[in-house]
Amino acid sequence: MNSTDSLVIAGTAYSSRLLVGTGKYRDFDQTRAAIEASGAQIVTVAIRRTNLGQNPDEPNLLDYLPPSRYCLLPNTAGCYSAEDAVRTLRLARELLDGHDLVKLEVLGDPHTLFPNMPETLKAARTLVADGFKVMVYCTDDPIQSRMLEDIGCVAIMPLASLIGSGMGILNPWNLKLIIEQARVPVLVDAGVGTASDAAIAMELGCDGVLMNTAIAAAQDPVRMAGAMKHAVQAGRDAFLAGRMPRKHYSAAPSSPVEGMISPATRTGS
User: Fold this and answer.
1) Which pLDDT belongs to residue 247?
2) What is the distance between the alpha carbons of residues 222 and 220, in angstroms, rounded to a whole number?
3) What sign does the CA torsion over 125, 128, 129, 132 have?
4) For this structure, is 176 an active site residue?
5) pLDDT at 35
6) What is the mean pLDDT of each run of 10 residues along the chain (269 residues)?
7) Exactly one of 103, 122, 133, 229 is catalytic; which is it?
8) How many CB atoms sit inside 10 A of residue 161's CB?
9) What pLDDT is stored for residue 106 in this prediction?
10) Residue 104's Cα: distance from chain center in Å?
11) In the prediction, which pLDDT does 258 show?
12) Beta bridge partners of 13
């Protein structure tokens, strides 16, 4: 990736466009190894499920992923109301010494983990007014994405498909609509299953990709983390390069044909 092609979120530049979660790994050692292999700089942390010091008798994730090396992104995984989400992120701000970049997600039900958008919009308004820099998980609805941006969210994070499904991008057209209208970064969040999914998201013009299960649930999480790193880089480079036009009506030779000797002009013809 071009060193000058940075992902800028809330005024801070990041060289990696891959964001990764910290859940579902075998242990914190595997978590650290996979995240190192991914090259990610922004790492999401589920405050309701991960010990950041609130449980002194348990292993502390910060001992494995120090804030001096990574930008920790507290998220509200497991929250089903605006009130719970706001309370969780206020706790995170206390635990992380005033850290204000957060990921908001308010879920609709435990079966699909689909976003509850009315509650998401409500929580976003409260958090932005409270001084948080909000990156927000949402449906792939261009209208509601615009509403979240108008509220003041610093990044829009539409799902590619359901969290943990590995189904990849089910509606690239909606993602394109969101990307074309957005003035803040758009990052695919949820549904990526393998490296090609990440590359496609970046080729569509997404500014980044966030994933957890696709890496943590792989047979070899550390190797998959490296694959995701390269896929995001390749997809971004392909987007910047600009693909060739699609031509459904005729074939076109890849080598020039001008000046070729035709059979009719050969000696003896």
Assistant:
1) 82
2) 6
3) positive
4) no
5) 95
6) 80 96 90 95 85 72 84 93 96 88 94 94 97 96 97 96 88 95 95 95 96 95 97 97 85 65 57
7) 103
8) 19
9) 96
10) 13
11) 66
12) 8
Q: How far apart are CA 168 and CA 29, in angstroms?
A: 28
Helix (H, G, I), strand (E, B) or coil at 32: helix
Yes or no: say if 65 and 75 are a contact pair by the CB < 8 Å rule: no
pTM, rounded to two decimals: 0.86
Given a contact cutoff of 8 angstroms between Cβ atoms, the answer to whether 34 and 126 are in contact is no
Give the whole-angstrom CA distance, residue 243 versus residue 155: 26
Do 147 and 121 meet the contact criterion of CB atoms below 8 Å apart?
Answer: yes
End-to-end CA distance of the chain: 54
Distances from the Cα of 47 to the Cαs of 3, 12, 76, 79, 85, in angstroms? 32, 23, 7, 10, 10
At residue 257, the pLDDT reads 59
From 72, 16, 60, select the one nearest 40 (Cα to Cα): 16
Half-sphere exposure of 180 toward its Cβ, with a 13 Å CA cutoff? Answer: 9
Number of other residues whose CB lies within 10 A of the CB of residue 112: 12
Query: CA dihedral in degrees (97, 103, 108, 109; nearest 10)?
Result: -70
User: Taking the mean position of all CA atoms in its chain, how far away is CA 84?
Assistant: 23
Indicate the SS3 state at residue 159: coil
Is beta strand 42-46 parallel, antiparallel or unpaired with respect to 71-75? Answer: parallel
Which distant-in-sequence residues (6+ apart) come within 8 Å of 98 by Cβ? none
Give the distance from CA 155 to its chain's centroid. 10
State the burial class of residue 257 (Cβ atoms within 10 Å of its Cβ: 0-12, 13-18, 19+).
Answer: exposed
C-beta of residue 160 within 8 angstroms of C-beta of residue 192:
yes
